Structure formats: C-alpha cells, structure tokens
Amino acid sequence: MLAFSSSDLQELSNIAAPRLEGDTIGSIVSNVFKSYFLPAVGIVLFVYLLLGGYEIMTSAGNPKGLASGKGKITNALVGFVIIFVAYWLVQIISVAFGLQSFADIF
Fold this sequence. Notes:
Blueprint: H1 6-16, H2 25-57, H3 63-96, H4 100-105
Helix pairs in contact: 2-3
C-alpha cells in the first residue's frame, strides 16, 4: 500500500494544482498560459508528428496515404510556427514599446 507524507502531498499539490496566484488577471493568464497551454501545444505537436510519420510508413506506396501523412506533418509544423511567432511577437513588441505589463500577460 502506498503511503504519502504530508510533504509529498504538498509537493504533488504544487505540481498538479493550477497556478492561479497573482493579484492581476494578467498574471493569472500568464501563469495558465505558460503552465498549461504551451506544454499542451508541444504534446499535440508531438502526437501529430507521430501520426503523420506513422501514416507515411504504413501507406505502402499509396499516394493518398502518403499525401495525408505529409499533410498532417505540414499542418502540425505550420501550427507550431504560428504559435511560436505569435508568442515572440508579443514579447518583442512589449519590449520595443516599453509595455512590460503587456508582456506579463504572456
């Protein structure tokens, strides 16, 4: 039987609980975005890359299967690039115009 000490449970709670600390909506959104959204995007990207690769491997020379697998990989990479560029554009614009509170949201 598993037995957890109170410090183990506290550590698990810190890892699993939403990080909604903060005194502003911006800090809450920022914490949720960095803690949950970006890792979820990475996982979805990885899954789509695997699915696309698997579809290409199992197409057995079928042009439709090959095109479908390539399409999945292309769409996954394009989506990742869009999210990556959007995130960094917000960061660069906030630094260029001195809008630190705007950068804190993301």
